[in-house]
Amino acid sequence: MNILEYENYQEKIPHGNPLFPYITYPCSIPLDFSRVPLHWHDEMEIIYIKKGTGAITVDFKSYVVTGGTIALILPGRLHSIEQYMQESMEYENIIFHPGILISKKTDTSNTEFLAPLLSGVLSVPLLYQPGSPCYAEIAACIDANDEISRTNPPGYQFFIKSQLFMLFYILFSKCLLKEPAKRDHKSLEKMKLILKYLENHYMERITIADVSAEVGLSQSHFMKYFKNTMGTSFIEYLNEYRLTMASRLLISSESSILAIAEEVGYENLSYFNRTFKKRFGMTPRDYRKQSTKQL
């Protein structure tokens, strides 16, 4: 898989065949990476935990997930995936665009169900656990698509769509919540602006004044909002993001450590080395060597 795909806060890389946007990424934390930073995209995403324990965050709420758990992430939701304590986790990222289920000619499956779900008028649970109602039926749809995706025989697209339609039939007929989940849309949109700014400028010198002006807040209000929302200061979050990007580049590129430090926004190599070692428990050079041995 292309790890750097997951390093943009708003993913723009098309998933799968443009004419049939459905794809599955097998992932392992921390073997492939220690975390997938907070991001969002226009596709639906199913996170299917195969083994182990990890943590996901959706719209600022955190959940510990274990083997068998299925998480349904609707388009536009801010979400992240990361290591939980010292545990490891193997999972699938199943990503598809809802457009493959929507007829060009308007029908009630779209107007009464899919469109209201995507807009938040209708709501279904985020997590589905083994043993819970409907879990076996939902898992069977995903497992069937996994199996046919191994070979993709002629016409496999019809099979995949049929299982997705079955999955949503189960959701709408048996899992609808009585009340839509409450979301702080104003706060979510504000955070998206901040994260988008960070995505575009993390390699540059960023000041609190710069990013607070971008979202129309005073510096003091911005710092308080970010701390209360994310549980950490903006500077700490920025450093964590830069180090995450550096760790990916150490694995995926042959650039020198100095070049990578500069590329992710560190002007001083010694400071970068110290900060990286504090975060990952080893120097960038040792991190690259260890990661190369695991490949």
Automatic annotation (TrEMBL):
Q: Which domain of life is it from?
A: Bacteria
Q: Does the keyword Ion transport apply?
A: no
Q: What is this protein called?
A: L-rhamnose operon transcriptional activator
HTH araC/xylS-type domain span? 192-290
InterPro entries (alphabetical):
AraC-bd, Homeodomain-like_sf, HTH-like, HTH_AraC, HTH_AraC-typ_CS, RmlC-like_jellyroll, Tscrpt_reg_AraC-type_HTH
- Which molecular-function annotation in GO is an example for this chain? sequence-specific DNA binding
Q: Which UniProt keywords apply?
A: DNA-binding, Transcription, Transcription regulation
Signal peptide extent: none
